[in-house]
Amino acid sequence: MVGLYRAGRDSVMDVVVNDNLRPDAQVLPFYLAEEETGTPLVRGRIASVGHVASTILARHDYPQDIALLQAEALAMTACLSSTLKFAGIFTLQAKGDGRVRTLFADITETGAMRGYTAFDEDSALVMPAQGISNLPQIMGGGYMAFTVDEGATGGRYQGIVELDGPELRDAAMAWFANSEQLETAVTSTSGQGDDGWQATAMMIQRVASEGGKKPSKADIELHDDVWHTAKTLMASVKQTELLDAEITPEQLVFRLFNTLSPHVAPARRVVDECRCNIEKVEAILKQLKPEEADDLLDDDGKIRVTCEFCKTERRFGTDVLAG
């Protein structure tokens, strides 16, 4: 069953949930409304992708600090992508000069997600607190790029921000400030428990006034209280609540924002799905010079190619090289 609910100040939440989807593999849109009129004043998203993070990380032998960061990046990517309308791929990619060189996660418009981290295995292990990734400590200096690629028939849009803050959410909020110029608050976390990984990202954003991106002065004056209350309430959420597998996204929305007339919409699914393309791999192999191909052949005369994302290993013979 998928549906909507509204909860007022003194009401009990209607039992209407997105129970056709796993609670730990979805993005839940919601908004907070003016109580009297139902006019949306704040929009939000909760991405809960613990199941996806568990299956992705199971294929990678990452140290704990790397796994925590990758899981959090997956949740953040799912959350941010759901605020955009696109038919293609949304990508979060960070480059650093510290222990982590590349942090990557992407998702399609249908919710197919993948990710990987490239890091210096010889560098010292960073021991973050559960659910907290200190970017300067683990990535050093660098930048984060947010990209929307709509494929051959569409455009490609990218925003780049410096890794100035201590957490992933700082880069996300800087991106929103630069690209949409709307007040936005973001939080994210990850952790590993007895039942696997949990990874959650939440954001709220001030609703723009009609006819423009930025709220008018009158809107700001009228709705300041609601926005600041929403930010305060979101800031009060505990890491344990975000990582609690027993609390569904709908329940968390009501728990946090029940005084602000919360509404939820149908959730969007998120799945672990790689986009390996054998034809592209073969095309690359055909471009190799003979001496380059010889260096890659194993004892059986095959070239082994392993996908960085899903770790699927494929073997190609010389017939592919010959074209």
TrEMBL record:
Main enzyme class: transferase
Molecular function, one GO term: DNA-directed DNA polymerase activity
Top-level taxon of the source organism: Bacteria
InterPro entries: Heat_shock_Hsp33 (IPR000397), Heat_shock_Hsp33_C (IPR016154), Heat_shock_Hsp33_N (IPR016153)
SUPFAM superfamilies named in the record: Hsp33 domain, HSP33 redox switch-like
EC number(s) stated in the UniProt entry for this protein: 2.7.7.7
Coiled coil: none
A single Gene Ontology CC term: cytoplasm
Record keywords, A-Z: Chaperone, Cytoplasm, Disulfide bond, Nucleotidyltransferase, Redox-active center, Transferase, Zinc
Annotated GO biological process: protein refolding
Protein name, per record: 33 kDa chaperonin
